[in-house]
Design brief:
10-stranded antiparallel β-sheet, alpha+beta, 14 helices, Beta-galactosidase, Chain A, domain 5, Immunoglobulin-like, 3 domains, 9-stranded parallel β-sheet, 20% helix, TIM Barrel
């Protein structure tokens, strides 16, 4: 890990363990160019890769072709309306309404550690384990200064990027667009890897051919969304899990985003990522600053698997802050799919008693406990206990659950308001709405304007009051609809474009306040399942509900896409009843357990109605969870086979950091007649260690298991699964 200023060629070089990133300063004007990002190289001068010695020449030598230079120069942060016709990274309107900006080099600092980003989640580190390059930039004509920030980490191949912008002029300016990063590079037949989906089928892996023009992923839904994800990767044509070039870009933000790849006339690529410019605008008075969220970049020439493990380690070591990160989570049972809205004390206590007998550790009371909530048509915002359902009050219920021997958790949706609620009747202006327009309802609810302090305080204080009233140790924070009708009753006309970003900042402020006031609370974020599963939320909660679809087979694709970037310990995963409530599929109880094991693990069912066979299987599943949880939580993840690619079976492996053990999960989705066993080559083992599969006598070198593989016999039927535990001898 090192950042160096190479004075002889006026360039900066960032070195991680295995990669180098080179930035060059060009011309007397101070154009900031991207020279190289790839495998680690010596401190040679590689600024020639920016091709500034070719036509068109730099502006100081050939001013008549300034636009040709700007339209081909591999910039570190593209300007707008000044001659570069590719995607801009920034757009600012001046006092006259004109748009045009070019940020030029003014100086730099190399510092130990990593500064925080004001108001935003971001990776963190102490001064011993990170370094940061800050490049000062300026547009003198506009009176705008900025700082491009780059951070690297000890024992990681990740680089983070962000920018902050300051109005140093005497005039108001309007920031209409700000990407967090821009990178230009030659195309080398890369494919674009994205994670697409919908409700109940989030984050499915998809490859796209990169054609000329722009191809992107984005959200304008006020959250990172079910449909697309704030991540893109450029993947070499022959790249596999263990070989080939990968460039990954992940946005640490929970609101509207744009991630885009543009291929131009010269077959070069421009990658940009940041807040989506649609419905965005920020008014900056003199002295005001705007901070962009950060992008986490990872390059590797060792395939997708190495990228995955780089992200996993970075997020475990430098993003997730919860005390639960390094310890087992309580095995919980959530009553949602067991009862939906139809429950009372006795029903919950019946579930708790049976759950305790099975070895479950926590009962979570989901939607329906507050106000006059009988279905999803009322009462959001009325956060007081419905004592018709919860007789004797919440404190008594929690004490009764604790007396049974279970911890207690609770569900909230603090950002929402129902039209049929006391809160809405008292404060209709607290809902986000466009005056005079018929509002767009979703799930018959509106979104609270938490950008207003009084609204934010009301919502937070409601949650805090409930948490203080009883021994509540877990909160599921949900958001079941996306933003529309973007308008605030309290923002001036020229600040309405600030609403969505201010909303995300307000959400972060509320959750920061929550974990500060209740440091021992286990917080799990959720948004109609996995619509807000992003690095921004992991800064506040160590786990996120992965999807409302708990079907074990659908979860294979969802969890494969999610684990491409995020550690297994972050994925909320439960065993549910069959036929599955979302897809109607029937899968074996042990397969449901084995798939949920690659996550936080819990139950989403009415345990009192299970067959005796399934009920008796729960203690064994829990014993398996306890046996392997540390390995799954902290180990290195390897994708061995993908059901979404081969259509028949899924296989993944977790290896301990010391390579002393490994767990292989194999799921046979579809059986085939007249077929022999399947050969799986293992990964991540120590070549020289001797291993055996638990329950068998044969031993093998790690090198043999990696190169020759193991045979997994065909299982009897569809949707069958098995675990193989590899132990060092």
């Amino acid at each position: 890990m090192n950042i160096t200023y190479l004075r002889g060629n006026n360039s900066f070089k960032l070195d991680t363990d295995n990669t180098s990133y080179v930035i060059g300063i060009v011309d007397s004007e101070g154009f900031i160019g991207h020279a190289y990002y790839g495998a680690k190289i010596p401190n040679d001068n590689v600024t020639y890769l920016m091709r500034t010695n070719e036509n068109p020449l730099v502006p100081s030598l050939n001013g008549r072709d300034r636009s040709s230079f700007l339209d081909t120069f591999p910039t570190e942060f593209s300007g707008n309306n000044v001659g570069d016709y590719r995607e801009s990274s920034i757009n600012i309107r001046d006092k006259n309404g004109a748009s045009g900006i070019q940020l030029l080099y003014r100086g730099y600092r190399i510092i130990n550690g990593k500064p925080k980003i004001k108001g935003l989640p971001a990776t963190f580190s102490d001064e011993m384990n990170a370094m940061t390059l800050e490049i000062d930039v300026e547009d003198v004509n506009l009176g705008v200064k900025g700082t491009l920030s780059y951070s690297i980490f000890n024992n990681s191949d990740a680089i983070t990027r962000s920018i902050r912008i300051k109005n140093v002029s005497d005039n108001i300016i309007y920031l209409d667009k700000l990407m967090s990063m821009c990178m230009d590079m030659d195309d080398d037949d890369y494919r674009m890897l994205v994670l697409h989906g919908s409700w109940a089928r989030e984050r499915h892996i998809e490859y796209r051919k990169i054609g000329h023009g722009k191809q992107s992923v984005s959200s304008i839904r006020g959250e990172s969304s079910h449909q697309e994800h704030p991540f893109i990767a450029l993947v070499g044509e022959n790249t596999t899990q263990s070989y080939g070039d990968v460039y990954g870009f992940n946005f640490v933000y929970s609101g509207n985003f744009l991630g885009q790849v543009e291929k131009n006339q010269f077959n070069s690529l421009r990658v940009v990522m940041g807040i989506h410019p649609e419905n965005f605008g920020f008014k900056l008075d003199t002295g005001d600053e705007f901070y962009s969220p950060e992008v986490v970049m990872v390059y590797t020439n060792q395939g997708l698997g190495h990228m995955t493990r780089t992200y996993h380690d970075l997020y475990r070591n430098h993003l997730i802050r919860s005390s639960y990160l390094r310890k087992p989570r309580p095995i919980l049972i959530n009553n949602w799919e067991a009862t939906y809205f139809d429950f009372d004390n006795e029903k919950l206590l019946d579930i708790a008693r049976t759950a305790k007998e099975c070895g479950i550790e926590m009962l979570v009371m989901d939607d329906g406990w507050f106000g006059n909530r009988k279905d999803d048509n009322s009462s959001l915002g009325d956060w007081w206990v419905n004592e018709t359902k919860i007789k004797g009050g919440l404190k008594k219920l929690v004490e009764d659950v604790n007396e049974i021997g279970l911890k207690f958790g609770i569900w909230f949706e603090p950002e929402m308001i129902s039209p049929d609620s006391r809160l809405y009747r008292q404060h209709p202006d607290w809902a986000i709405a466009i005056p005079g327009r018929i509002p767009c309802r979703s799930r018959n609810q509106y979104v609270l304007d938490i950008t207003r302090k009084e609204v934010r305080d009301y919502a937070y204080n409601c949650v805090a009051k409930i948490l203080k009233s009883a021994n509540i140790e877990y909160v599921k924070w949900d958001m079941n609809r996306q933003l529309t009708d973007i308008s605030s009753a309290c923002l001036e006309a020229d600040r309405q474009g600030e609403l969505i970003h201010r909303y995300v900042l307000a959400l972060y402020e509320m959750q920061e306040r929550l974990i500060a006031e209740f440091p021992n609370l286990l917080l799990e974020n959720c948004s109609g399942g996995g619509a807000r599963f992003d690095p921004g939320m992991l800064y506040y909660s160590p786990q996120i509900w992965c999807s409302d679809d708990t079907d074990a087979i659908e979860r294979l694709s969802i969890q494969e896409g999610t684990s491409l970037i995020y550690p297994l310990s972050t994925m909320g995963a439960h065993v549910s009843v069959c036929p599955n409530h979302t897809v109607g599929r029937v899968t074996p109880f042990d397969t449901r357990g084995n798939v949920a094991l690659a996550g936080t693990f819990g139950y989403e069912l009415d345990v009192t109605k299970l067959s005796e066979e399934d009920k008796e299987a729960i203690p064994q599943q829990i014993a398996t969870y306890r046996k392997f949880n540390k390995l799954i939580r902290e180990g290195d993840y390897y994708r061995l086979a993908s059901y979404s690619e081969n259509n028949y079976y899924d296989c993944y492996q977790v290896v301990s950091k010391d390579k002393s053990e490994a767990l292989i999960t194999f799921v046979q989705v579809l059986n085939q007649p007249n077929m022999h066993s399947i050969k799986i080559k293992l990964q991540g083992l120590d070549d020289n260690k001797i291993y055996k599969i638990e329950g068998k006598e044969e031993t093998y070198h790690g090198e043999t298991l990696k190169k020759a593989g193991i045979l997994i016999e065909r299982l009897n039927g569809d949707f069958q699964s098995k675990l193989l535990h590899l132990i060092e001898q």
